[in-house]
Amino acid sequence: MTDVREAELLAEIKTLNERLARMEALEKENALLRQKIDLMIRKLFGAQSEKLDPAQLLLLLQGFDDALACRNHWRSALSCEIREDENAD
To answer: What domain range is 1 assigned to?
Structure first.
C-alpha cells in the first residue's frame, strides 16, 4: 500500500471516528430532550388535568340507561313477535 493511500485511509478513519463521536453525543442529547418532553407532558397532562366532571359522568350513564332501555324494548318486541308466529302455526 502506498503512503498516499495509507494517509487517505487514516484520514477517513479519523473522520469516521469524529462522526461516530458526534452521533453518540446527539443520541445522548436526543435522550435528554425526550426525558424533558416526557416530564413536561406529565406536568401538563398529569393527574391534575384528568379530573372528571360529575356532569360528564351523568351524561355517560344517561346514555347507557337509554341504550339499555332501547335494547330491552326491542328484545320484548321480538319475543312477542316470535310468540305470535308460534301461535299462528
So the answer is: 1-51
DSSP state of 46: S
Q: Pseudo-torsion of CA 18, 23, 29, 35, nearest 10°?
A: -160
Give the separation between CA 36 and CA 39, rounded to whole angstroms: 5
pLDDT in tens, the chain (89 residues): 799 999 999 999 999 999 999 999 999 999 999 999 988 888 888 766 556 666 666 666 666 667 667 777 777 776 765 565 566 65
62 shares a domain with 43: no
Q: Are residues 45 and 57 in the same domain?
A: no
SS3 87: helix
> Rounded to the nearest 5°, which phi and psi values hold at 51?
-70, 140
63 in the same domain as 36: no
